[in-house]
Structures are given as C-alpha cells and as structure tokens.
Design goal:
The protein is built from nine helices and 15 strands. Helix 2 runs antiparallel to helix 3. The protein is globular. By secondary structure, it is an alpha+beta fold. The two termini are about 25 Å apart. Strand 9 and strand 10 form a beta hairpin.
C-alpha cells in the first residue's frame, strides 16, 4: 500500500513517412540541442504494453538533431541518448518544438513550443506537493518500523493514506475540470492502476468529443471494460500457465477452496515485503480450505525460482516469463504489483487487493462464519 509501482502501460502511435500535401497540416518537428560533448545518436521511443518501442533515431551533428513526423492529437514520446535508459519525456503536438538538454542531465530538458507539454509540467508541479508528503510519510514509516515504534508507524501510515487519497482525488478532479485536454486523459491513464471501473468510467464519459480519438481514452475505455469483467461478484476468467518445472496449471483446476491469485515478481520490492504476510496467511488457513496461486511477472526464471525459495512460497507458482506482458495479468487488468484477487470455491471473485493485516482479517472472518 505504500509503494506505487507504476506500470505505465501507454499505447501511442507515430508515422514517419513521406508526407503528401494533405498531410502537411499534421507535421510536427522536434529541434534538439545537447549542451556538452556528445556525438552519438538520439532515439525516439514510445511505451507499449509496458515495453520500450524504438521508433526512430537521429544523428547529433554539432550538438543538434531533428525529428519530424505526422501526428493528430497530442501524445507523449520519449527521447534518449542511451538506448533504453536516461529518458526525457516530451509531449508532442502539431507544432515546432524545441528541446534543449545538458549531456549530464538529459532527463531534465528545457522544452518550448508545445502547449501540451507546458500543461503537463503545470500538472506535475501541482501534484509534486502530494509526492513530497508521500515520500516523507514513507521515510518515517520505515524509521518507525526500524525502531519498533508501532504508535509512530501507525501515525505515519495514516498520513500516507491521507496524502494518497487526496492525490487520487486531485487527479480525478483535474481530469473532470480539464475534460477537453489530452493531457488529462494521459495523466489518468498513467495513474489508472490506482482506480477501479467506478472511478474511471465517469471520467471517460466526461471527456470532450474533440479528444475522443485519443489513444489514451481508447486505452482507458478498454481498461474499464476489462475491470468490469473481473469485478468483485464476477466469475473468474480461466487461464492456463506453466509452473516452474514447465508443467501447465489451469486456474479452474484449483477451484474448490478459497483461492488467492497473487500477482508478484522477484524484482518487485513491495511484493517481496508483502510475501511474509502471504506466508502467514497460507500457514494459518491452508488446512481450513485456503490455497494460493502465485503468478510471476518475472522474465528471468532463475531469479523467479530463487525468490520462491528465499521467501518460502510453498504454494503453486506459474509464469510465462513475459514480465509486464504476462497474459494472466492482461486478463485481469493488472497494472501494478503486488496485486491479488480472492476466488470462492465456485470460481467467483469475492475480494481484490487484500494485503497485510487486511488479508488476515478477511480470511479470519471468512473461516469463522
């Protein structure tokens, strides 16, 4: 609950091709300048299904470079000088855009010419106050835990939750008040992992018709439809995935007990911190009719197997080694981990995202009814 894993699952499009006369009105250009000693390439990327997709590259000549292309509505792109590292965000629109960065601080450029980017920066400045509160609270939570001061820990946990709730409300209100802005759609999608379908659907319906063609609104609409299919009260969607030995395991084959489907990864710090709580739940309730299916978002099988061993995860484990592209994760609209859902013996989803004390308390009530 304290760490936000941003899965940034954002679909953007760009076309680099010869332009005919009817397309001229859609041209954009990025005129870049890099201060410092650099004579390599600059790369233009997009994010798609959690992966970096390289779109184009430009040679830096006398500290300058140029990208040009075709675009309709504004979209977020990323520039890099180190391949899939050291990215700088840039909101691109139908304009001549200037990009000025220092070689030793490429991630923080000065950008002009893009009204959408200026709007995005203004949003970030307003949101930064919440980030600072969250960071301070998390720092103090860790300190209180190290000292064994449960009272202080609880105080800072409450402060964290308050700031987190206020930030979530701020983002939704921002989108409602700026319903004709693609930037609004982008920031909601960027934070969509924090919301359920009841939060997102009114925001989507409120967006102006002029931006309904945005890829961000399309992605949000698709997410809402998926969330509805896997909402509490709905039948779980069946899937089959291999375990660590390569044997297929079908979700429905585990029905009959209360089943926690736990999405996690060896590289996910919050997941590893949550694992001891899940172990406690398993040990306490397994003989009462409680089971777990771990679904790994790992790509490296050795790290996955080692984490299972290190954290004493003795229940079923499956994964397809696709990272954020995990097929089960797509079925259940998982944009952040740790994440879980609890399925009853008949295959109906009865709860989602139970962690820590909340998981134990829910199971206690369930098995004492």
């Amino acid at each position: 609950m304290f760490q936000k894993i941003f899965g940034f699952i954002i679909i953007v499009g760009i076309i680099f091709s010869c332009q005919n006369q009817s397309e001229k009105e859609y041209l954009f250009s990025i005129h870049g300048h890099i201060n410092g000693n650099y004579s390599g390439n600059v790369f233009l990327y997009k994010r798609e299904a959690g992966e970096w997709i390289k779109l184009d590259s430009a040679i830096v000549n006398e500290n300058t470079f140029v990208f040009s292309g075709n675009i309709g509505l504004p979209e977020m792109y990323y520039l890099s000088i180190d391949g899939e590292n050291n990215f700088a965000e840039i909101f691109v629109e139908q304009a001549d855009i200037n990009f000025d960065a220092n070689i030793d601080d490429f991630r923080n450029p000065t950008i002009s010419g893009s009204a959408s980017h200026m709007e995005f920066l203004a949003f970030q400045n307003k949101s930064a106050a919440f980030d600072e509160r969250l960071s301070e609270a998390w720092k103090n939570i860790k300190a209180a835990r190290a000292e064994g001061n449960r009272e202080a820990e609880k105080t800072w946990e409450d402060a964290y939750d308050k700031a987190d709730t206020e930030q979530k409300n701020f983002i939704i209100e921002y989108a409602k008040q700026n319903n004709n802005s693609v930037v609004s759609a982008y920031v909601v999608l960027r934070n969509a992992f924090q919301y359920d379908e009841t939060d997102l659907e009114p925001v989507i319906n409120n967006f102006d018709n002029a931006i309904q063609g945005s890829t961000y609104i399309k992605s949000l609409s698709e997410r809402v439809e998926t969330l509805k299919r896997v909402a509490v009260g709905q039948p779980a969607i069946d899937f089959t995935m291999n375990d660590m030995e390569g044997n297929p395991v079908q979700l429905s084959s585990l029905y009959g007990n209360y089943l926690l489907v736990d999405f996690w990864a060896s590289w996910c710090g919050p997941c590893r911190r949550e694992n001891p709580n899940v172990v406690v739940a398993y040990n306490k309730f397994n003989n009462k009719g409680f089971d777990i299916l771990g679904v790994s978002f790992d790509k490296d099988p050795d790290k996955w197997i080692q984490a299972v061993e290190d954290d004493s995860l003795t229940w079923h484990q499956v994964g397809d080694l696709k990272g954020w592209g995990n097929e089960a994760g797509k079925l259940y609209a998982i944009n952040s981990i740790p994440s879980n859902l609890l399925i009853d013996p008949n295959g109906i989803i009865i709860a989602k995202d139970l962690r820590g004390e909340d998981l134990i308390a829910f199971l206690d009530e369930l098995f004492t009814e």
